[in-house]
Amino acid sequence: RSPHPQSAAHAGGADRALHALDLDGRAVWRTPLGAEAMSPLATADGVHCLLEDGQEGAAELCALGPRGKVRWTRSFAANSQFLVAAGKLILVSYGDGSDAGGVRAYAPDGSVRWSTPTGAAPTSEPMVADGVVYVGTFGDQVQALDAKTGKRLWATKAGLDAGRPALVGDTLIVGSGGEQSLHGIGRTGRS
To answer: I want to staple 79 with a disulfide (CB 3.0 to 4.6 A). Which of 16, 57, 111, 160 is the partner?
Structure first.
């Protein structure tokens, strides 16, 4: 019997498989995927991971059931490195290889619920709080998207190469890689 996905540890290996370990470190299952599994994310429905494309990031999203059976994979012409859950949706931040990018939301069945371009590519994974997706971009912005629809709520400048926002009270703290400084932005997009 496999443990609930959220009570097991999951790791990709150089053997091009995803591994599930119980909390005592014993192997529960191993699923060959044909590519290195990155950033496994356990949800109530199973485990999701990105599959390495041999470049800088991933070009496929894979969903597995609680016992490691592959449910679906979705390819995207993009470069992504992190997954984030937003309710039942799985969010992928991506770059398209030409400095542009966005955030895409996948439903549990693998369908794309929404996909929102961010102009310049996101610098990292989005942060989700209270139904809002916050993402920093190489276009020097923090953008807020509705988690259910992907509609852009606002965008504001946040220094060179705005990093992943962190929420402290009602203030988003955003690191600026290009300036090596921090910026405070209200949840409505005002500094």
So the answer is: 57
pTM over 0.70: yes
CA angle 63, 116, 184 (to 5 degrees): 105
Question: Based on the number of CB atoms within 10 Å of its own CB, is 155 exposed (0-12), middle (13-18) or buried (19 or more)?
Answer: middle
| Six-digit token string for 79 | 């470069």
CA count, 13 A, side-chain hemisphere, 24: 3
CB atoms within 10 A of CB 139: 21
